[in-house]
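Hey, resending since the last one bounced:
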Amino acid sequence: MNWNISIRQIHRWLSIAFTVAVIVNVIAMVQEKQAVWVGLLALFPLVLLLLTGLYMFALPYAAKWRGARGISG
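The structure tokens again:
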């Protein structure tokens, strides 16, 4: 199982979930139904998007570091 492909797929689906949560939040605000859980609805996928995004951001640097360490060591 390739973790990079799995993380990318999870990141894509999280972006869809985040978009839906934001749309639900906007609709709730327009209808003036203020509920705390609606405001926090987008926070969970956003945190997971941050984690998966940081992982994908660090991948090229980790590959360079492992490659440089393997050559010199």
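The longest helix spans residues 43-72.

Sorry for the duplicate.
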